[in-house]
Amino acid sequence: MTRRNGLASLLRPEDSVLVLIDHQPFQLANLNSHEPHMVVNNATGLAKAAKIFGVPTILTSVIAARGGVIFPQITDVFPGQDVIDRTFINTWEDRKVVDVVKATGRKQLIIAGLWTEICVAMPAIQALGEGWDVTVVTDASGGTSVEAHEVAIQRMIEAGANMMTWVAVAAEWQRDWARTESAGAVADLLVQHAAGSGIAFLWEQQLLNTPVPREG
Q1: Per-residue burial over 73-109, b = 16 or more CB atoms within 10 Å of its CB, e = otherwise
Q2: 97, 101, 119, 125: which one is catalytic?
Q3: pTM, 2 dp
Q4: Residue range 101-136, pLDDT digits in tens
Q5: For a designed S-S bond to 117, which of 29, 40, 152, 166 qualifies (C-beta 3.0 to 4.6 A apart)?
Q6: Residue-wise burial string across 32-55, b where 16 or more C-beta atoms lie within 10 A, e elsewhere
């Protein structure tokens, strides 16, 4: 297996394309690897990060008429964007999705979805075999059990996939806080969706703006 290392292996917004798969009510109802609110939050944070950095994002569902539409927290990030509805369980067998991804001209394919062991693993493994540089965002995904999620991750690692969490993806896209065109929006994103890290940032700002009392 080729090791993923070196500066060129890090994610770059200009080379990234994000595919969010099946973040739907049916899948969430049997999500047992993570706390459901956390997965909704993390997937939304990832979607907002992609929008900040201009990363093309494809939204796809499977038989939405029965499984429910994509969570509004995600679709609201991309108002007016069509969601590609599939019958294929494996997203990468649906030519509509693959053609849209290929049309971006990017090769760093980032995937998150429900469930990890099925709707994430299948396209990740197939795309890896076709030469794509695949990253799976593990905390914006989830499985029917902790075991199912973890076994899927191991399976994808063995196939050559890169594993990251959503905040790590955002940080890798930002890379340098001197990139002021996105730094402020990323800081706001952390406040909204990064829980303790966001609150700690606000606290730091409060302390920096609070005069230190002096003894008379």
Answers
A1: bbbebbeeeebbbbebebbbebeebbebbeebebebb
A2: 119
A3: 0.93
A4: 999 999 999 999 999 999 999 999 999 999 999 999
A5: 152
A6: ebbeeeebbbbbbbbbbbbebbeb
